Amino acid sequence: MFSDFAIKVENLSKCYQIYDKPHYRLLQMLRRGRKQYYREFWALRNVTLGVKKGTTVGILGRNGSGKSTLLKMICGTLNPTDGVIETHGRIAAILELGSGFNPEFTGRENVYMKGSILGLKSDEIDSRFASIASFAEIGDFMDQPVRTYSSGMMVRLAFAVSVNVDPEILVVDEALSVGDERFQRKCFSRIEAIREAGATILFVSHSGATVVQLCDHAVLLDDGEKLVTGSPKEVYGRYQQLLYAPDDKREQMRRRIKKASEAGAAAAGEKNAGDNRTQRAGATAPNNSAENSDELRESFNPSLTPTSTIAYESSGAVISEPKIKTIDGKQVNNLVRGKKYHYCYRVKFTRDAGFVRFGMLIKTKSGVELGGAASAPGKSMALESVQAGDEFDIAFEFGCALNPGTYFLNAGVMGELDLSGNEISMHRLLDAAMFKVLPDSGRTSTGIVDFGSRVLIDRCDD
Questions:
Q1: Which residues make beta-bridge pairs with 81?
Q2: Are the beta carbons of 55 and 217 closer than 8 angstroms?
Q3: With contact defined as beta carbons under 8 Å apart, do 295 and 221 qualify?
Q4: What are the Polar residues biased-composition ranges (predicted)?
């Protein structure tokens, strides 16, 4: 039912008229002849999107893809050229630095002004002011004009107001990267609390880790067009694929992503669009009876293969045969915590390259990056040169310090193709391989990583 949606947009478009010379505006108004004096720029074109109540949706895309334009129209600060927007619930938004603030007013005055815009009465703002001031952490600057604030202080205050007005819909445009690590964690924690309270959250970020960590669902925009929707990990993979595609192959990559999205939608429908809170993985691991067994014995299950593998466009190298092996060379994908393994893959070079490095990364099912390694920290220890036709077998040794669960591995190769000194991604595989860590009833560690903790308990004598 429509009431299940907090936000729904249908065929939303925004077109700007671009005039090459100032006086062309006047000529267009006077309409001399039939000549058109402007060029059309479509910032957004025919975007349809539904956000269910209580879900968190991230919007990814390159600069200029239409992300901020979409958020502004949803919040009502920008009128669409065409299309329909419907929202249900109080919207609090952080769209840009100083958005909604009067630079001549003090921080305190702006808090009351913005609170009233959001529908709060004066006594309601009074009761929340201490919480807002505490969250913003700007001290005596609360009574200074906003024009004297740094960009970080301005966003802190805007964020503090927005998260303390009990929003039913929270819209954030790339504001989570402001401030030090402590304040960023404070923002994440508050967003998590707002989400747990049942609010709908829509935000733009260039950080894939943030989208994967916070979101139930994600959308990829490019050149004003919606390319794909799906699980955060899947959409972030497509975004990376597009972002690092060579310029001459980017349009081809766009078409490929859109075609894959349309094929997936036709096969699976839109059933899982709002259900990712309970299942966030871009690939579903096959059932494996070993996971329910107490036998800690390494094994290989041929059906335990990722369905979410994404290959970047090759730029002089091709990665193949990703697999995990024991130290003595036996292929496995059911691992035992505490043992060492080799993550192996083969690389064939199709172009000459210099200062080549190889890499690996381990992620959770939801795409959270747990850790990885590179074959060299920089040029000084990289492989100085390779020739077209060269092949290398790469093996990363790692200790399995993970608690029982399903995990995914990336593989990548970087290098320089010319004398410019610019290192590029020559090839990369997302979700190249997957593995499970078997359960161990004798271990007491919790969470994702086993830190080898010991508990010491001493009875206190009176």
A1: none
A2: yes
A3: no
A4: 279-291
